[in-house]
Amino acid sequence: MFPGFVLEPKKRYNTTVTKPFHISMAALDPKSITVRDIISVYYVGKLKSNNKQFDSSTQGPGFKFRLGKGEVIKGWDVGLNGMKVGGKRRITIPAHMAYGNKGSPPAIPPNSTLVFDVELKNGAFSNLFPLSLFQISVYYVGKLKSNNQQFDSSTQGPGFKFRLGKGEVIKGWDVGLNGMKVGGKRRITIPAHMAYGNKGSPPAIPPNSTLVFDVELKNVN
Questions:
Q1: Which positions ≥6 away from 70 have C-beta within 8 Å?
Q2: Pfam families under this entry (predicted)?
Q3: What is the mean pLDDT of residues 19-35?
Q4: In this structure, are residues 49 and 112 in contact, taking their beta carbons and an 8 Å threshold?
Q5: I need a labelling partner for 57 at 20 to 30 A (CA). Which of 24, 30, 118, 155 fits?
Q6: Which listed residue (42, 63, 99, 196) is catalytic?
Q7: Whole-angstrom distance, CA of residue 99 vs CA of residue 105
Q8: Three-class SS of residue 160?
Q9: What digits encode the pLDDT tens for the residues 111-145?
Q10: Is 91 among the catalytic positions?
């Protein structure tokens, strides 16, 4: 998606979902940051070429900005998305997602790759469903939790395409698929109020049905 962009995970950061992801009302009070959240971070920035530190903020309230709004370099807007308060992440950012061929004299030479160690100190969450910058395509199998009966699937070809966070799918998908990586797989259990509610979707989905989806993220455009 962004050639040359590298996320280097620390111990407490793992973008691979290894356990079933269950949607509940708690999911409406986000624990991880996303586009439009106001966050504060501690960070240390170094040049990858010589490990020389050029900037830091490690005391007090930290550095505050709104994620995904262009208030920081593009590598931060992309690389910090999905962090949790208290989490730490190392991001290696190529020049075209930092200061480009002009650099930021005198500290950052032109065409510099930067390395940041970042700790998320606080987040003023938007309490809105995350708005993705991208259209995604997925493979999925949907079943009723009550009897494990399959009611829908898309497992071949380009997959099912939609824009995350735009209300093009049920609310449980907009929340439950956020933060996935291409090639990643996730099981989401979605209560009726975040799916088809007390009306259901006859004849396949009865009223007040809890749904279970196994989803694989195939592509991001």
A1: 77
A2: FKBP_C
A3: 39
A4: yes
A5: 30
A6: 99
A7: 10
A8: strand
A9: 999 999 999 887 765 433 343 556 888 999 999 99
A10: no
Please confirm, yes or no, whether 21 is among the known catalytic residues: no
Active site annotation includes 160? no
Residue 54 backbone phi and psi in degrees, to 5: -115, -15
Q: Which helix (H) or strand (E) holds 6?
A: strand 6-8
Catalytic residue among 21, 37, 42, 43: 43
Architecture of the 131-220 domain = Roll (3.10)
- Under CATH, which architecture does the 13-124 domain have? Roll (3.10)
pLDDT per position as a tens digit, 68-87: 778 899 888 888 877 777 88
| Candidate list 23, 73, 108, 205, residue with the active-site label | 73
Q: Above 90 in pLDDT, residue 36?
A: no
* CATH 3.10.50.40 domain residues, the chain: 13-124, 131-220
- Give percent of the chain with pLDDT exceeding 90: 43
Catalytic residue among 21, 42, 63, 116: 116
Of the residues 5, 13, 55, 162, which is catalytic? 55
Residue 129 bears catalytic tag: no
Give the mean pLDDT of 180-199.
87
Catalytic, 196? Answer no
